[in-house]
Amino acid sequence: MIRDALMPLVAAVCVGACAHARSAAMTSSEPRIAVSRTPFAGAIDALFAPYDHPDAPGASIVVVQRDTVVFMRGYGSANLETRTPADAQTDYRLASLTKQFTATAIMLLVQDGRLSYDERVSDVLSGLPAYAHDVRIRNLLNHTSGLWDYEDFVPDTQRVQVHDRDMFALLAHADSLYFPPGTHFRYSNTGYALLALVVEKTSGMSFAHFLHDRIFAPLGMTSTLAYEKGVSTVPHRAYGYTQRDSVFQPTDQSPTSAVLGDGGVYSSVADLVKWDHALETNAIVSAASQQLAWTPPVLPAGAATKYGFGWFVDHDGGRRRLYHHGETSGFTNFILRYPEQRLTVIVLTNRNGGEPWTIAQKVADMFLGTVSQAPTF
Question: Taking a C-beta distance cutoff of 8 angstroms, is the pair 266, 283 a contact?
Fold first, then answer.
């Protein structure tokens, strides 16, 4: 069931518009496709053995080293009902991997001079409760807002899906912040749903439209989108599953699956190669902005945090390590980057559980020649 995607996807990983005919040689500004097999292929395949069956939800992985794709494959099924194989072009719901795109949208608006990181959210969005008056854009980005997670107020019995615009009503269930803004770290999906609304209010465009026009289209990420039911279509869609009593049951949607800013983007590992290349070359935001995204704030009284803008940041054996997990109904994902070593591992899966962060770290260790603990979050 293993599908080696290196050779068939040479054209698919080009950055930018691919409408022009091109010779076999790719330009130096584009990520290259390795034509030789990594010596770690067998060991990587072994890590994905639980996924590698037509009757099991699948997984896709890409390894990018020094801007070269050295391993890219799919395992198992993207859709159990049709037995559609998962491959490098399969589009998974990214869940919280979406946050790096939401953060980038905000960084673009700051670069455009239309927004400030230290601007009060209440000065941009009307309808926030009074207790959130002093929350800043920066606080939303690095989870230091103190806002309750909206999911705390969505009952398991709810059948109508929540959207980003519902944050105001959900926040009305609380009467205070967890802590004063900027004093502590507490992961909250609410902040990124509000950031999507900030993008819409500031740009005058829908969030999905802004991501398409300012990030996905310029990078040639043709199958990546913020999915809106009845508005857009995911081209190579994976469907989510959960294992119950040894049987995989469909769990593709939940009451919170329609919220875009914190987790609504679908993408494939082939498209995410283009995103990784943009991070490598500062193709979307400046180097200074990107470094800000990869720098956790210093909090008062020694409060701990390791979160920048849409990325967790720590150090592994003296190496800076960037990462993010994504978990939602039927999907579990992970992205891992060592920027100085120029190594990226991305694992996307369409099932609950499986710890792709452990798999990604083991794969990275093969290329780094180390043995490391998987990141914590």
Answer: no
- On whether the CB atoms of residues 105 and 211 are closer than 8 A, the answer is yes
The string of DSSP letters for 119-184 reads SBHHHH-TT--GGGTT-BHHHHHTT-S-PPPGGGGS-TT--SPP-GGGHHHHHTT-SS-SS-TTS-
Residues 159, 255: contact at Cβ < 8 Å? yes
pLDDT tens, position by position, 217-249: 999 999 999 999 999 999 999 999 999 998 999
Residues with Cβ < 8 Å from 54, sequence gap 6 or more? 1, 76, 77, 83, 85
For the chain, list residues with pLDDT below 50: 7-28
Which regions of the chain carry the CATH code 3.40.710.10?
Answer: 3-97+223-368
Report the pLDDT value the prediction gives residue 32, as an integer from 0 to 100: 66
Q: Give pTM, 2 decimals.
A: 0.92
Q: Pick 3-97+223-368's CATH classification: 3.40.710.10, 3.40.309.10, 3.30.870.10, 3.30.420.40.
A: 3.40.710.10
Residue 83 φ/ψ, nearest 5 degrees: 55, 35
pLDDT tens for residues 64-79?
Answer: 999 999 999 999 999 9
pLDDT of the residue at 157: 87
Which helix H or strand E contains 324, and what residues bound it? Answer: strand 319-328
